[in-house]
């Protein structure tokens, strides 16, 4: 990740921790967010979509699942669609 | 042995207000003609929102009732419908019958408009007492003069239906003759914003069992007078129909979504039919929950088809939500009124909004079932059903009948025992810790106390991060105390017993902190900014829903809310469920939260003490606290078979109300007297048999004086009174359940020897110590602002 990507990744990590109450120590950029990883569900994905829209103006409604896989994939999608 | 308690319960009064009318006749006429009440929302700012439709009430006479002049809109709506039902029933309350008449009202979001007003319009103190659900039934009780059992059901969108079921249970238990029941909710920013965030609102008018692309929110109230047949006949009342039985269950699946396989819904429907003595072919009409969300409609469609296909060739189903919107806690009551009108007039209102193509598509998937599109239908009917399903996985099904139909309701003569408990409190978590602190004479040294739940608790009960991070403090406290109570009761939940295990959650203020914070956010950032993550926690039954999901308990699951006494009324309610053979084990709980928000609100009301002091010290306030206490109640044979320890026997209970302005307790002494007399009478003992009282004094003069007056009168200052709030503070519902737990621990010998006590009289109080070892019968009591009281008599178990 370059500096800009790292900044966005860190922001997303902070948002996941604050808005979805995931302990910071459980989060790194690669850990899978859904399924057997952190265990997020469809309601959490709505919160992620709302937060990313609010922070970066990037709409993720209807976007394919793989972009929500982890913080790295979310960051990549944001960077490519800003 | 089980005895028949099939007392006939009948409907003698109806009241209704919704977007399609301000009384029953208007609503009914418009429902039959398929008139929609859905239009652009006026009362909530929908700027930038993808949906902007709602079904709002248009009524300029809501303030005509004196009691409605200074209350939240939810209570105005409820009073309007209740006044109509009450007048319709023609039931007069006097000193002779007032204690046998009660009020049970359901709501989802309660006085959330007052939360909005408070935040947006200068933080006025007068808004504070209007914020919770608790006040609603109190206002109705004051209006009609009821002095019996007064409470509210907080099971979100099933609340209105559950209120009807609970009233019938209490009438069949013989503790009441008549109730005004129903539900109310007002159109408000919090639910609109929350459902918007969940993408659960439809852009077009909702289209149940058709396009199923989301709900349209509505508002309103339905009210029903339910009374025993004997009571109705004696006063020559006009009888609309019988209420047969009901089924109530929990999905134990997801906090917002129904089980896709419909298991919980089907258990509720089948239980209602079985206990009503009916088979599938007997049901002529179902007023469906029919919200119009894809998940609800798919699950409900599946449930109805699974149960009725090939067994009923003349079943009609419709969803009146297509016209009145989803009125949340009012929905079950409004739809029950529609179902009763359908039954008694042999006319079925349609689900509107079908095009010709939609009708063709419907006929392909509906099979033999008439999902009535667009036009009303006339047919002779004998039995109709109203279904309500809610957030938290809460399911309720109620059946109405044109004629007597021997319901198979029974009552066990088995004794009911406290077989487990769980405690989350500011003195630490766990029953053993509590005993240790009490035996060591612990007293708090601050005037605002908070319990903490953390890693140690999660690890102890195997609660994973993916689960607990979803919960607010209100819910996580409840889950931890519930898990401890279950563990100490030695219960293993299996597929075989999951539906025999239930819970009654009691709370005074519910998730008010989460509601307040949700509103703060949207007040600052707009309706569009609601949090999908936090919204599910704004419903009062979220805590019970999470506990059900975590444990797999799929039986009876209801949240009751009427002030601090809710944590003791939950014990009364749970006792009745076991007594009436709906469960083998019930959890009875009390949970309330202290927080930045609660501290601010109680502080502004002037209720927080300057210093932590003794009970009966004529203080101006109390130590504000929080926590969660859960008690496991078990039927005797079940307790024996599971090898559970019996802490104490629940020998009797009583609940009563005395009309005082909501927010006050002064002048409500007779309510406490009535509750105590009822509990002692049910226990089959006299007041002189009571060895000690575990009371509700919290150091605030207005509250403590009630005890001084009443115990002085009933016990003449000769019976020791113990005050557990001197240890844990005024934790409201958590404290009232803890009062029962503490008394049970004393009878069981876990809390030992001499305990601090008072001899309490109207003119004075003597502080002393009392040797608890010889106690056989103890009385526990609890109060609520607004004048509602609960009392429970516990009996020592023989070794």
What does this molecule look like?
Helix content of chain A is 52%, strand content 0%. Chain A is an all-alpha fold and 82 residues long. In chain A, helix 1 crosses helix 2 and helix 1 crosses helix 3. Chain B has 25 helices and 30 strands. The two termini of chain B are 24 Å apart. The model of chain B has no long low-confidence stretch (mean pLDDT 97). In chain B, helix 3 (112-120) packs across helix 17 (512-525), helix 8 (263-275) crosses helix 9 (294-308) and helix 19 packs across helix 25.
Summarize the structure in short.
Chain A is mainly alpha-helical.
Secondary-structure map with pairings?
The complex is a heterodimer of chains A (82) and B (799).
Chain A lengths: L2 H17 L22 H15 L14 H11 L1
Chain B lengths: L1 E3 L4 E9 L6 H9 L6 E2 L12 E2 L18 H17 L11 E6 L5 H9 L14 H10 L5 E4 L5 H14 L5 E8 L3 H9 L22 E9 H6 L6 E10 L12 H13 L7 E5 L6 H15 L7 E3 L2 H4 L6 H15 L1 E2 L7 H11 L3 E2 L5 E2 L4 E8 L3 E8 L8 E3 L3 E10 L2 E2 L1 H9 L15 H6 L4 H4 L4 H16 L12 E6 L5 H14 L16 H10 L5 E4 L5 H14 L5 E8 L3 H9 L22 E9 H6 L6 E10 L11 H15 L8 E3 L6 H15 L4 E3 L2 H4 L4 H15 L6 E8 L2 E8 L5 E8 L3 E8 L4
Parallel strand pairs in B: 5-6, 5-7, 10-11, 10-15, 11-13, 20-21, 20-22, 25-26, 25-29
Antiparallel strand pairs in B: 1-17, 2-8, 2-9, 3-4, 7-8, 9-16, 12-14, 15-16, 18-19, 18-23, 18-24, 22-23, 24-30, 26-27, 27-28, 29-30
The portion of residues forming beta strands of chain B comes to 15-25%
Low-confidence stretches of chain B: none
Instruction: Bin the strand percentage of chain A.
Output: under 5%
- Number of separate strands of chain B: 30
Termini separation of chain B comes to: 24 Å
Q: Number of helical runs of chain B?
A: 25
């Amino acid at each position: 990740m370059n500096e800009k990507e790292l900044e966005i990744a860190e922001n997303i990590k902070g948002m996941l921790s604050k808005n979805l109450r995931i302990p910071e120590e459980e989060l790194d950029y690669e850990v899978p967010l859904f399924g057997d990883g952190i265990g997020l569900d469809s309601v959490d994905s709505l919160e992620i979509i709302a937060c990313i829209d609010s922070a970066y103006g990037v709409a993720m409604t209807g976007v394919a699942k793989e972009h929500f896989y982890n913080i790295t994939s979310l960051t990549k999608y944001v960077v490519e669609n800003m | 042995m089980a005895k028949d308690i099939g007392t006939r319960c009948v409907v003698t009064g109806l009241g209704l207000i919704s977007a399609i009318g301000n009384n029953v006749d208007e609503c009914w006429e418009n429902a039959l003609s398929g008139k929609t009440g859905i239009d652009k929302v006026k009362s909530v700012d929908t700027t930038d929102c993808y949906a902007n439709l709602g079904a709002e009430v248009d009524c300029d006479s809501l303030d005509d009732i004196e009691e409605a002049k200074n209350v939240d809109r939810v209570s105005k709506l409820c009073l309007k419908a209740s006044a109509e039902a009450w007048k319709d029933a023609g039931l007069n309350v006097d000193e002779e019958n007032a204690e046998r008449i009660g009020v049970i009202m359901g709501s989802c979001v309660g006085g959330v408009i007052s939360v909005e007003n408070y935040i947006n319009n200068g933080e006025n103190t007068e808004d504070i007492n209007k914020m919770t659900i608790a006040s609603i039934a109190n206002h109705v009780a004051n209006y009609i003069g009821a002095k019996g059992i007064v409470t509210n059901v907080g099971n979100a969108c099933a609340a209105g239906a559950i209120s009807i079921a609970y009233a019938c249970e209490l009438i069949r238990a013989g503790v009441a003759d008549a109730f005004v029941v129903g539900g109310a909710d007002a159109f408000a920013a919090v639910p609109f914003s929350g459902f918007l965030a969940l993408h659960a609102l439809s852009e077009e008018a909702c289209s149940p069992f058709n396009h199923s692309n989301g709900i349209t929110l509505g508002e309103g109230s339905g009210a029903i007078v339910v009374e025993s047949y004997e009571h109705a006949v004696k006063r020559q009342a006009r009888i609309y129909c019988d209420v047969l039985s009901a089924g109530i269950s929990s999905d134990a699946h997801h906090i917002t979504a129904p089980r896709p396989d419909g298991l919980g819904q089907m258990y509720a429907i089948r239980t209602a039919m079985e206990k009503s003595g009916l088979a599938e072919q007997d049901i002529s009409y179902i007023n469906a929950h029919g919200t119009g969300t894809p998940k609800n409609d798919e699950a409900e469609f599946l449930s109805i088809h699974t149960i009725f296909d090939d067994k009923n060739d003349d079943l009609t189903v419709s969803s009146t939500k297509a016209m009145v919107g989803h009125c949340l806690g009012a929905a079950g009551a409004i739809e029950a009124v529609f179902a009763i009108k359908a039954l008694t007039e042999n006319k079925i209102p349609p689900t509107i909004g079908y095009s010709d193509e939609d009708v063709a598509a419907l006929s392909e998937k509906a099979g033999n079932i008439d999902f009535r599109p667009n036009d009303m239908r006339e047919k002779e009917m004998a039995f109709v059903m109203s279904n309500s399903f809610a957030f938290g996985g809460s399911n309720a099904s109620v059946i109405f009948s044109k004629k007597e139909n021997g319901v198979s309701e029974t009552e066990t003569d088995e004794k009911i025992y406290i077989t487990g408990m769980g405690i989350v409190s500011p003195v630490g978590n766990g029953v053993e810790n509590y005993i240790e602190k009490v035996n060591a004479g612990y007293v708090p040294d601050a005037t605002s106390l908070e319990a903490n739940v953390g890693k140690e608790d999660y690890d102890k009960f195997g609660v994973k991060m993916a689960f607990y991070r979803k919960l607010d403090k209100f819910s996580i406290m409840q889950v931890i105390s519930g898990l401890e109570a279950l563990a100490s009761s030695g219960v293993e939940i299996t597929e075989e017993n999951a539906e025999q295990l239930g819970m009654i959650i009691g709370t005074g203020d519910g998730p008010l902190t989460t509601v307040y914070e949700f509103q703060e956010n949207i007040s600052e950032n707009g309706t569009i900014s609601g949090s999908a993550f936090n919204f599910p926690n704004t419903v009062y039954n979220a805590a019970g829903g999470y506990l059900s999901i975590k444990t797999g308990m799929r039986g009876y699951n209801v949240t009751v809310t009427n002030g601090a006494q809710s944590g003791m009324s939950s014990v009364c309610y749970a006792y009745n469920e076991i007594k009436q053979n709906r469960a083998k084990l019930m959890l009875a709980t009390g949970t309330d939260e202290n927080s930045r928000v609660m501290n601010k609100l109680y502080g502004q009301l002037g209720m927080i003490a300057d210093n932590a002091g003794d009970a009966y010290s004529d203080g101006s306030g109390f130590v504000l606290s929080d926590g969660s206490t859960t008690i496991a109640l078990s039927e005797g044979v079940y307790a024996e078979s599971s090898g559970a320890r019996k802490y104490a026997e629940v020998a009797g209970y009583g609940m009563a109300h005395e009309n005082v302005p909501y927010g006050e307790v002064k002048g409500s002494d007779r309510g406490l007297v009535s509750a105590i007399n009822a509990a002692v009478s049910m226990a089959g003992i006299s007041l002189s048999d009571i060895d000690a009282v575990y009371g509700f004094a919290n150091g605030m003069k207005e509250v403590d004086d009630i005890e001084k007056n009443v115990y002085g009168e009933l016990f003449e200052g000769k019976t020791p009174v113990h005050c557990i709030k001197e240890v844990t503070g005024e934790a409201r519902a958590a404290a009232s359940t803890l009062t029962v737990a503490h008394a049970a621990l004393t009878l069981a010998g876990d809390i030992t020897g001499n305990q601090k006590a008072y001899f309490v009289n109207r003119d004075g109080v003597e502080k002393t110590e009392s040797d608890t070892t010889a106690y056989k019968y103890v009385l526990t009591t609890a109060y609520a602002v607004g004048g509602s009281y609960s009392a429970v008599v516990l009996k020592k178990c023989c070794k």
